[in-house]
Amino acid sequence: MGAPVGVDRVIEAARHLRTEAGRPVSDAKRRGFLGWMMENSRGYVSHASSSTEAEYRRYADELGLALGPDLFGASRGVGARFDWDTGREIVDAA
After folding, report:
1. What's CA 63's distance to the chain center, in Å?
2. Mean pLDDT in each 10-residue stretch from start to end of the chain (94 residues)?
3. Distance CA 70, CA 75 (A)
4. pTM summary value
5. Can you say whether the dihedral through the CA atoms of 34, 36, 40, 43 is positive or negative?
6. What is the DSSP string of the chain?
């Protein structure tokens, strides 16, 4: 597992993904890959088909990204919610 690369680096790298035929991947496929990377880096189980898993793993290899909890950096541990009664944002630090 390498050093955290940050979300911006992963998103920018994903913009350059190509299909095996050399064409750019669709926006939907790119977004699916980014979601898959985020979920898998945090330990969530993927429900993608085996062919989609293989495709996404190939993309990760091409981009030089190793899946792991540090891929996007440490979780900030901060959440926020909107309090409808007061009309204010409530920030919860973990």
Report:
1. 13
2. 60 81 86 86 82 89 76 59 80 62
3. 9
4. 0.63
5. positive
6. ------HHHHHHHHTT-B-TTSPBPPHHHHHHHHHHHHHHHTTPPP---HHHHHHHHHHHHHHT---STTTT-----EEEEEETTTTEEEEEE-
